[in-house]
Amino acid sequence: MVDRFEEWNEIDQFCQQEAALEFPDYGPYEYNGAPDFSTFANYENTLQLLSIAILLRDQHSVLRIIHVLRSHRGQDGLFEQLIDAYVEDKQDLDSCILEKPYDTLLQVFYENNERETLKLVQKYLKQWYPAMKNHPRWYDGHLRIRDEGYAPYYGYWAFEAGATVFLLDLDDSQIDHLVYPKDLVDYARQLRKESRHSSVEMKPSAKRERGE
Fold it and tell me: pTM higher than 0.90, yes or no?
């Protein structure tokens, strides 16, 4: 999937370069990663891809995603918190480009009381699916299952919530929600416990996930 993500970005850069040549009055070409964070589907899909890579302990893929999104740094608080353990230049922001429901999850990173932190995670999980109603690809996909078994449906998962719980090493024993990817979080914890990654490509850093 990260290969396709990079290919999409490369095609988009070519289109941007061609547009800059055809319409010089708009200024020269400047790198701008393909995902548009102001577009709901782009934002959610990108967060999901990043969060899955984090939960798979796939450092190489995480860094590839961050590289594509280098033009997006300093714009979105949740994105900055998710990549904090993988970059040297930490940037704390208190808001998300798309506020609801993502601001709720962003608050988790700034809440010091563990009980309140878990309440925020639970709140986000409850908000998550209703907030996805404008997702053009898979919202209510389970209702569109065809006789031959095809549907734009592979489960509904708030992977970014799982990545948040994992990165902050929160106790999720009381979290029981349909969209929470508990098995994947448990898998990530086990890899961390064993000091294993599915891929490694990052410079040593003093900053690590909590619990590591």
Answer: no
Tokens of 103: 């601001």
Give bridge partners of residue 199 from the DSSP assignment. Answer: 58
Query: What's the rounded Cα separation, in Å, for the pair 9 and 157?
Result: 24
Q: Around 12, how many Cα atoms within 13 Å sit in the side-chain half-sphere?
A: 15
Task: Write the DSSP symbol of residue 167.
Answer: H
Q: From the centroid of its chain, how far is CA 15?
A: 25
Question: Two tokens at 74?
Answer: 């300093």
Query: Residue 101 is which amino acid?
Result: P
Written out in words, the top-level CATH class of the domain with range 35-138+151-193 is mainly alpha
Q: How far apart are CA 198 and CA 212, in angstroms?
A: 16
User: Domain spans of the chain?
Assistant: 35-138+151-193
Under a CB-based contact definition with an 8 Å cutoff, are residues 65 and 2 in contact?
Answer: yes
pLDDT in tens, 159-191: 999 999 999 999 999 999 999 999 999 999 999
Tens digits of per-residue pLDDT, 116-132? 999 999 999 999 888 87
Give the whole-angstrom CA distance, residue 60 versus residue 196: 13
